[in-house]
Amino acid sequence: MAAIIGNPLRTVRIGFMPLTDCASLVMAAECGFDRQYGIRIVPSRETSWANVRDKLGSGALDAAHVLYGLMVGVQLGIGCQRQDMAVLMNLSRNGQAVTVSRALAQQGALDGPGLARQMREAPRSYTFAHTFPTGNHAMLLYYWLAAQGIDPLRQARALTVPPAQMVGSLKAGMIDGFCAGEPWGQRAIDEGVGVTAATSQQIWPDHPGKVLGTTAAFAASEADTCRAMIAAVLDASRWIEASTANREQSATVLAGSAYLNTGRQAIAARLLGRYDNGAGRQWTDAQALCFHADGEVNFPYLSDSMWFMTQQRRWGLLRDDPDYLGQAQAVNRIDLYKGAAGMTGTQLPASVMRSSTLIDGMRWDGSDPRGYAASFPIHQR
Fold it and tell me: What residue range is the signal peptide (predicted)?
């Protein structure tokens, strides 16, 4: 589907939030991978996930780097007008973090057990922020707190804050901690106001991150354009992971004013898997932010979509169990992904489901979503 010389490129406006995991989308445009498939990606920096949702719905954006849980929430009509959506591919895995205030960490809340102990011994009103009510960070934050025996909705207050405002909110004492994508966890450490209590890969190893999302209507009317977008981002994802130099170059581009507009080192450290929790522990994370892994990252697994539905049900965002499998089959456009995978020589997995064991020892494989959603001792239904 390479562009024919002389033919105009199809312009696609793709929204993104200023987060490190938008890298494959940005580099697809910056390195010209898009033009190889007859399109021109115009990245559009957005200010909140609600703006991304609304602009996708109105058609102001053709597609977006977007929270997986947000896409599922719109598909199910949680807190908004229901609209059929399309997840074209996964953009990333891992690489988010739960950050607690330095003051809380100094009182012993350096990790989950420490936080649970602190909340028992010094009861008060604790506030933790996420980035969107149905999104990845809310669901991962709630899951992590519940795994420590903390009811996230009864023993704490949950607050929605745009990613770029997390560090300022922590510094101002408005919140005790937050779950968000990078570089904001690292920025909290660099500014001396936060400590990493858990990485998201500790909560759910190899969890899905952001997706390339659009509306079902756009996917139906612009199938060739969707395949071209997926193919361009697959090539960019492969390129990022081809060398350390490419990751370093990506960090430099992302730091620019058009994208994250922040210090390059705050981006580069965790993009390269180099972690410092801000309290004296340093390590190289084998499960850091990942963009491709021979296509293993990018396939839109049905079980990933279903997991977010189970957690939305668990926390009362859904009053009843949805048709988990049917909704996942509707929103995850495996057909379009397979077409782009063929264009780029990207491997496909043996199954549309995958299994994982999360921080609390619970295994998820998509086989019994209704039973899984009802099995947690801490829930709000």
Answer: none
On the question of a cis peptide bond just before residue 349, with omega within 30 degrees of 0, the verdict is: no
Nearest to 296 by CA among 287, 306, 308, 309: 287
SS (H, E, C) 321-375: CCCHHHHHHHHECHHHHHHHHHHHCCCCCCCCCCCEECCCCCEECCCCHHHHHHC
Say how far apart CA 103 and CA 107 lie, in whole Å. 7
CB of 177 closer than 8 Å to CB of 99: yes
Are 290 and 305 spatial neighbours (Cβ–Cβ below 8 Å)?
Answer: no
For the chain, percent of residues with pLDDT exceeding 90:
98
CATH topology of domain 96-203: D-Maltodextrin-Binding Protein; domain 2 (3.40.190)
Q: Which CATH architecture has domain 10-93+208-241+290-374?
A: 3-Layer(aba) Sandwich (3.40)
pLDDT bracket for residue 3 (50, 70, 90): very low
pLDDT number for residue 2:
44
Specify the domain boundaries for CATH 3.40.190.10 within the chain. Answer: 10-93+208-241+290-374, 96-203
For residue 17, the one-letter residue type is M
| Structure tokens given for 379 | 């829930």
Structure tokens at 86: 């399309």
pLDDT digits (tens, 9 = 90+) for 248-296: 999 999 999 999 999 999 999 999 999 999 999 999 999 999 999 999 9
Judge whether 113 and 147 are in contact, CB under 8 Å.
Answer: no
Closest CA to 237 of 258, 262, 215, 210: 210
Phi, psi of 179 (to 5 degrees): -120, 125
pLDDT of residue 256: 97
- Say how far apart CA 182 and CA 20 lie, in whole Å: 6
What CA dihedral angle connects 164, 165, 168 and 171, to 10 degrees?
-100
Q: pLDDT tens across 149-161, in order? A: 999 999 999 999 9
Distance between CA atoms of 99 and 355, rounded to whole angstroms? Answer: 27
Q: Return the bridge partners of 282, or none.
A: 276
Q: Work out the mean pLDDT of the chain and round it to a whole number.
A: 97
Instruction: State how far the Cα of 3 lies from the Cα of 209, in Å rounded to an integer.
Output: 30
- Specify the amino acid at residue 278: G
pLDDT of residue 232: 98
